[in-house]
Amino acid sequence: MKTKLALLRLLLLISLSLTGCVIWDAHPALAMYPGATDIMLQGFHWQAKNNGQHGAWYDLIAARAQDMQEAGITIVWFPPASKTPRWDLNEEGDPYSACGYVPMDYYDLGEYEQWVQDGWPNYTGRWYRHGGFETLYGSREELEDAINVLHGRGIRAIADIVLNHRGPRQKNDCDEWISWGDETGTIASGKMFWGHKNDCSPPEVVSSNGGGGGNDDGESEFPPNIAHQDANVRSQFKGWLFWMRNSIGFDGWRYDYVKGFSPDRVREYNDATNPTWSVGEFWDENTDAVIAWINASHTDDAKKSAAFDFSAKSILTRSFGAGNYEELKALPGLMGRWPAKAVTFLDNHDTHPPHENPRQFPDHRLLEGYAYVLTHPGVPCIYWQHFYDKGQLIHDKIKELSNLRREQGISNTSTVWVIRAEQDLYAAQIDNKLVVKIGSQPWEPADAGISGYTVRSEYGDYRIWTKTSTGGAETVFRVHRDVGFGNFVSIRGSIPQLNNWGGPGRSCVWSPGNIWQCVVTDIPAGQSFEWKSLKNDSIWESGPNHSGAGQTTHEIRPSGY
After folding, report:
1. Cβ contact 229:209 at 8 Å
2. How far apart are CA 344 and CA 336, in angstroms?
3. What is the rounded CA–CA span in Å between residue 355 and residue 390?
4. Which candidate, 313, 413, 322, 423, places its Cα nearest to that of 372?
5. What pTM value is reported for the model?
6. How far apart are the C-alpha atoms of 123 and 127, rounded to whole Å?
7. Quick check: bond before 79 cis, omega within 30?
């Protein structure tokens, strides 16, 4: 068994109240990991090649692991790992295989030769061996090596899981691509072989008994459609996911096309495999629909899956393309409604070329776009081609921005004060420690009465300031208490720096031993105050208030909440 990274650390960070303007705050009570400071990289693109060669992509991921670590990346989203049939060749015969999104033999991660039919595009000819044992991205051994290299750098590996549909091997008598066996009736791994469907009887869904019976429980645009209502199908998927988690070394799941099966299946598969994190591709710009899917993905609030924020992506593409930021007066999409569950992004393999669609984020505004998503709540996902294929300057600036996010502790539940959002100007303050300005209009923090900030990153039409260091006289709060999985601790107090009891106070950061620590640098030495801790920003600890003084360390052990 390959070594795997330990369970995702619960990371929480400071969130200050801001007055005088609308504050778009987090939804911490339902967050799986409130305050998580993860940065994600989509570790592939539609035409992923290493020096022009297929089959060497995993080696490239491993080779760039150090650079990813230096950029503060904590999650790499891998491409679909299972073997895809060659019937997906394009007219030039390039085996791009739909980027891996039509899995044929789930257990073949690049270690078997497979049988397919000749004669593109209809494949009615002779059977022959698939060209080599590797997948589009490499061999199983290279995949495991890449995961281990990432783990050694403190980076988790997320597998792209395609469960809605399955890539066929040949046509049946009804001209449907529906079967997975060669002429001997087997597939190379010998596992999850569900047989041929050689008649024309409905329904056109796939079950484990040979292709007919069973029903699907979601939408489908990609035949053959897999019947998740078939208990045997679900059992075999759970076995495969368990194998991917515990034998291959993946840490979590990116669920492809989750509209294609019930969200209750996500709960079932996650409960069976215990991923450190999961995220679903619920492609919909209706944020209410996305929230409904998240809520349905598990009965336990702490275990609900995250989702890609397609609504925010659309609004950002439109706003940055026009240079008009009026739609950003409120945080857009899922980011503005449930940021702890939002994965924000500018592009992915479906919105970026070679696809011809209007969804691509404008290339000439990439750095301004990353100045936004890397300073705002949600888990930001950097796209591979943006980071590695747009030139050294773009790469270095994205890296600078991601490191600034990490340094300042900007999290998926950070608080944002939107100061200006209009034509040619967006300005906001995040967590009372970072200010960002985007757009061609001149603007400085002093224009909003903000002082004590220094420029840290700028290029083109963006500029970012952080608080000027004052030498760091610290008031430290340490709360010793196990509050249970998925919960978190914050503090409030009787002084403005702790928001006079009524504000959001300060969020604490978890560390081993169930110690929740909060460090405050703006309380004068010797200033007296009272304070108390809360669970999930809503439940006060039992007992009286604690007395405190500025620039000292306070240790408490609450008896309960």
Report:
1. no
2. 11
3. 17
4. 313
5. 0.76
6. 9
7. no
Q: What is the pLDDT of residue 392?
A: 95
Of residues 106, 144, 156, 105, the one with CA closest to residue 248: 144
SS3 label, residue 365: helix
User: What is the spatial distance between Cα 452 and Cα 56, in angstroms, rounded to a whole number?
Assistant: 49
For residues 503 and 31, what is the distance between their CA atoms, to the nearest angstrom?
20
Element holding 267 (H helix, E strand): helix 263-273
317 vs 36: CA distance, rounded Å: 25
Domains and CATH numbers, the chain: 82-136+164-227 (no CATH), 416-467 (2.60.40.1180), 475-556 (2.60.40.10)
Render pLDDT for 403-455 as a digit per residue (tens, 0 to 9). Answer: 999 889 899 999 999 999 999 999 999 998 899 999 999 999 999 988 889 99
Instruction: Give the DSSP letter of residue 301.
Output: G
Nearby residues of 560 by Cβ (< 8 Å), 6 or more positions away: 541, 542
Which residues are 90's β-sheet partners?
none
> Of the candidates 12, 24, 136, which has an alpha carbon nearest to the alpha carbon of residue 79?
136
Residue 270: which H helix or E strand, with range? helix 263-273
Mean pLDDT for 380-387 is 98
CA distance 420 to 427: 5
DSSP string, 67-136: HHHHTT--EEEPPP-SB--GGG--TT----GGGG-S-SBTT-SSS---EEE-STTT--S-EEE-SSS--S
3 state DSSP class of 382: strand
DSSP 355: S
Beta-ladder partners of 98 = none
Using CA atoms, how far apart are residues 460 and 440, in angstroms rounded to an integer? 8
